[in-house]
């Protein structure tokens, strides 16, 4: 093993075979921790976001936080019911991209996908920044290391998720449930102290900076809707559950909604009762905890669990961003590398990409939650609206049993989330929401450019129209002087050209293809017999989804069987028009040449096909 391989195994564990995929599923308890941590953690800052807007009008209007929280909880109930309908209709996973694409068309589907991808990146950024803010509230001396702590946290989250779905689920269960228990202790003790001890009876005097208006109330409502982010994650991750997947997903979504609604309303109520006012250097939950718990161990336990749940809230994105990216890659809207499962049966490239993008945003915004929050929630409510509108169309097309009631529920969800989307965009536009509004069409344009490139490559490499080539059966030479192994990924014009080269210089040829689980063997063999029937095709299984390792081992064994002669390894390579287009393709030939060099193969030839 190379030094890199040893370090990789120590950090994320040994490779898992594809056959273990079904065992890497989540129980309902683990799924609540992995897929709901974003939504549940939002109670740590959602109430504060409402108060931060209301405080502009002075202390007399801070009581409006409670009716605003009630309106958001009603919206949560509507969205939960709507997504439970989606899970029932799409038992193998009905994310906004899938639902919108199938029922509203390609462009709405891409808008939903772009919105979600942007929101997932922002979720990691906000969650990590808010978690570090909770830590700094308890330990102000760490203020100067905000960015460094955020980047380290993202790196640790990336490693934890690269270890696999089941391991990350088990790892994150304890902090999630510790946070839930701590919040409920806070609520119970807070209500008890309300009737048994002296608590502040009025808000401190706060100067009025803006007059109270409908627009300001809508701003506060939009800010509080951050409590809704992550609600759709369970619908996107249905296939992460144990069987029966869709039933377990529906039940877990109900549990999540009840817990989230109770905690959010409870914290908002206690903040109102204890007359808590936001402070610049301390979170509202921290202020409430100091009043109810004092400065003892329970307060620090609250801060510690808040830190952990906010950091782990990013895990919702780590579960769903790679999965959505793989769907887009499957449809040729993102680089194909995002479609591949890593060593631990997770989409490793998607996890790494998400971490890099979130770290960049942390550095740009210097880990300031208040600077990132205005960008938040625009994408998620856009995807909510498109998903629910798509479900209404779905029910009208299918008209299965009870479709009318389901259509009404999803219609209510679509209308409610559309109104909230408009409110969020209008009220947060100047504060930063314009960035997301601009970014969504740019990301959609990127999708379309990538798709156009893949279509161009497919057209250029297509063997459609090539005449059937009837080569005579190759007779095995009595003395083999120049054997050749040609590596076949797909049967395209580049492969045909490489095979013709091999015929011109070798007296024995074998073609090798590696099946990592995506190969249609019957179709490949049929095409092979039509075009290249004189050369045997060997298909290798790769239970660990590696292309390079089985090929390198086959070549090494083949060279051993043909001693005292030079075996030529022929690698078909297509050359893109521009260097940046190489980023959209797996660099298998590069890694293979390196592996063959380590195996001491003597002759390796690339046959180039220029697109």
UniProtKB/TrEMBL annotation:
Topology in the lipid bilayer: Multi-pass membrane protein
Assigned keywords, A-Z: Membrane, Transmembrane, Transmembrane helix
Gene3D superfamilies per the UniProt record, alphabetical: Amino acid/polyamine transporter I
InterPro entries listed in its UniProt record: AA/rel_permease1, APC_K+_Transporter
Subcellular location: Membrane
Primary location: membrane
Keyword Cell inner membrane part of the UniProt annotation: no
Domain of life: Bacteria
UniProt keyword annotation of Transmembrane helix present: yes
GO molecular function, one term: transmembrane transporter activity
Transmembrane annotation, as ranges: 62-83, 104-122, 128-159, 171-192, 212-234, 254-277, 297-314, 345-365, 371-391, 403-425, 431-450
One Pfam short name: AA_permease_2
GO cellular component assignments: membrane
Stored PANTHER family: POTASSIUM TRANSPORTER KIMA
Protein's UniProt name: Amino acid permease
